[in-house]
Amino acid sequence: MNLKETIKMMGKTQRGLAEESGIKEVTINQWVAGKAIPRLDYAVVAAKHLNITVDKLAEVMNINEIQESDREE
Questions:
Q1: What is the value of pTM for the model shown?
Q2: What is the CATH number of the domain that holds 13?
Q3: Distance (Å, rounded) from C-alpha 54 to C-alpha 71?
Q4: How far lies 34's CA from each of 7, 40, 71, 73, in Å?
Q5: 9-21 per-position pLDDT tens digit
Q6: Residue of 28, 26, 23, 21 whose CA lies nearest to 3
Q7: Based on the structure, what is the number of domains in the chain?
Q8: CA end-to-end span of the chain
Q9: Structural domain of residue 43, as residue ranges?
Q10: CA distance 3 to 42
Q11: How far apart are CA 33 and CA 21, in angstroms?
């Protein structure tokens, strides 16, 4: 499952999530497209409005993989 599917599964649209959360729609669109990852404060707000944990949000966005590949050895 990805972020787009998660938003839809929760009965929301990207625009609706933006309006409810106060996060700009363009920002959410970038997350869905994989062009950006959320700041922690935005992740907390988005997860709350999707009724999921921040960990689950990170999972559906594959953020753990991005962080691991950017980590220095």
A1: 0.82
A2: 1.10.260.40
A3: 20
A4: 15, 16, 19, 24
A5: 999 999 999 999 9
A6: 28
A7: 1
A8: 30
A9: 3-70
A10: 14
A11: 19
